[in-house]
Amino acid sequence: MSGHSKWANIKRKKGANDAIRGKITTKIGREITVAVQMGGADPTGNMRLKLALSKAKANNIPKDNIQRAIQKGLGAAGGTNYEEFTYEGYGPGGVAVILDIMTDNRNRTAADVRHLFSKHGGNLGATGCVAWMFKQKAVFVVEKETFGDEDELLNIVLEAGAEDMKSEGDVFEIVAEPGDYDAVADALAAKGIETASAEVTMIPDNTVHLEGKDAEKMMNLVDDLEEHDDIQNVYANYEIDEADA
After folding, report:
1. In a domain, 232, yes or no
2. How far is CA 165 from CA 30, 76, 151, in A?
3. Which residues lie across from 103 on neighbouring strands?
4. pLDDT digit string, tens, across residues 133-162
5. Does residue 119 share a domain with residue 233?
6. How big is the CA angle at 17 (ends 15 and 21), to the nearest 5 degrees?
7. How many CB atoms lie within 10 A of CB 199?
8. Is 15 exposed, middle or buried (0-12, 13-18, 19+ CB in 10 A)?
9. Could you tell me if residue 198 is inside a domain?
């Protein structure tokens, strides 16, 4: 299991308990609302909304929740003003961590994040300390039981502009530049190929292998960070063997 394996993270979230799933639903709803505030309710011309809706689909968010989040964004004058920024830091074993933050109280969030890093053997770092280790990429996940012809899928996505495709267990993981997101998504849709996940994310150039206590601490850190209301996304460059996950 790895910190940048989107499918591993999706499977963990799908198996989460109701309390954690409730937080995931709330965060995605908030992302949809802010996306609508900033760019309108039409995903065709609003990439941020398109990505948020894709994330909602991957996490099985009910349509009623999605519609309420959109309506909240359309009528959001005088609503909560969220500040958006990133935090960077180090987890156990020197793992690089980047957090996407959306908060209405920066001081509260900073104190909480600093505490969580310290609690699990890491530390919050300065801006830019680990961002150089990651690149922003569009990542699509296709389950093999949905579409199992690897050669055909590879041809479809490469013609659409994807950089790479690899087989990861029971899924194919497709990587493209963010600017090619629409082209790859449209090519998959045109062939009737469903994606388990489709998003723009951060992929590390290199990974750190963890085992034993460090692996346990890192997983606990990620769990606590993902459960925090103000943290929208957690990116990290760790790898953990299945036995330690």
Report:
1. yes
2. 31, 40, 10
3. 83
4. 999 999 999 999 999 899 999 999 999 999
5. yes
6. 85
7. 20
8. exposed
9. yes
